[in-house]
Design a protein that fits this description.
By secondary structure, the chain is of the alpha/beta class. It has one domain (2-235): 3-Layer(aba) Sandwich (Rossmann fold). 48% of the residues lie in helices and 13% in strands. Strands 3-2-1-4-6-5 form a six-stranded mixed beta sheet, with helices on both faces. α6 crosses α8. The relative contact order is 0.17.
Length: 238
């Protein structure tokens, strides 16, 4: 946990992610990454020189028309004194039943982002923190290269002028395996995804490809992120 916190502090410092007086909405899906992000930001808040406020937001997909059970996350937020907001949506109904999307991930991601942005603004937040880690960045790079024939990735910090809100990704220096290892010592109220498309995605294919490449060429995800930084691609320069 200390290693993760150290990496988050480095990313926050390198990219100026948090400023004094920020009100940050933390997107909490219920998965290990978003819950680790919430926990780490709560810990950081205790001693960070820049004072900031946190609000946790969960978008309820309402799988099969039923409200999700987020009581464990609510308990965690109560223990840290963090406001917790669950936003009901019709995303499952729209994507899987009405539109019957064969490849639902892209549309779902866009719709979730829009709802999250609007909810954060309604709550008076000026920033949104997302739980993307270093391996996510490498996978996104590979997906952009192989599917869209372009060099690029999401940025550690992105200002959305149309929404007047800034996206930050404090876990960009953290490895997925570090999060998984920390779960042996840190108890988090993880909710298993009920999404029908879970683990059958292009991202999962990219993850497996990077794993195979790393057997031959060393730690490929680290090399990709290093190249993004040295090449100053998509605002990854420090």
């Amino acid at each position: 946990m200390r290693r993760i916190l150290s990496r988050v502090r480095a990313a926050v410092s390198d990219y100026g992610m948090i400023k004094d007086g920020d009100k940050i909405a933390v997107g909490v899906s219920g998965g290990k990454d978003s819950l680790m992000l919430l926990k780490v930001l709560c810990e950081l808040k205790r001693f960070n020189s820049e004072k900031f406020e946190l609000v946790a937001i969960t978008l309820d997909m309402r799988f099969n028309g039923k409200d999700g059970d987020f009581s464990g996350i609510k308990k965690m937020c109560d223990e840290y004194g963090v406001e917790y907001v669950v936003k009901p949506t019709d995303l499952y109904e729209i994507i899987f039943n009405i539109r019957k999307e064969a490849s639902p991930c892209s549309l779902c991601s866009r719709m979730r982002r829009g709802i999250l942005h609007d909810t954060a603004k309604e709550l008076g937040c000026n920033k949104i923190a997302l739980g993307h880690h270093l391996d996510d960045a490498a996978e996104t790079f590979m997906m952009n290269l192989l599917i869209e024939s372009r060099i690029g990735c999401f940025a550690p910090v992105t200002y959305l002028s149309r929404k007047d809100i800034t996206m930050i990704r404090p876990l960009v220096y953290v490895r997925e395996r570090e999060i998984e290892q920390s779960l042996e010592r840190v108890e988090l109220p993880i909710i298993k995804s009920a999404c029908p498309a879970n683990e059958h995605t292009k991202r999962e294919d990219a993850k497996l490809l990077l794993r195979e490449l790393s057997k031959t060429y060393g730690d490929v995800p680290e090399r990709i992120v290093g190249a993004l930084q040295r090449g100053a691609i998509d605002r990854w320069e420090k």
